[in-house]
Amino acid sequence: MSCDVTLTVPCMDCGLPAISVRCKTCCARLRSGRPWERLKHTVFAEESHCWICGTWVNQDLPQEHAKSRTVDHVQALRDGGPPLDRNNCRLAHRGCNTARTNQARGNRTHTTLSVDISTI
Ligand SMILES: [Zn+2]
Ligand SMILES: [Zn+2]
Q: What are the residue boundaries of the HNH domain, all occurrences included (predicted)?
């Protein structure tokens, strides 16, 4: 029982059809540029722990490292979250950020993840 119809809504920024509140292009645009760079550095300077898992973030790790620093949007940009609001931006590990994003996507597409917690 599934339907393959993807609902599109106009992007809140550019008005083009998108599958979420804000289209990918606008999300990417909002993650580049001076104001965002500045905000990121504010978060890096003010926070020391990952808001998702609660452990310390080593800000010296190389970017491609799973535990490297990223800035996560508490309310995702594609869900209409304010891109440059300090209160919507928190320090997170790259891995935690990605896992959270994937989980949100999973919920959206009704993917069922079975995890055996007893092995953790
Ligand atoms: Zn857009
Ligand atoms: Zn973390």
A: 67-103
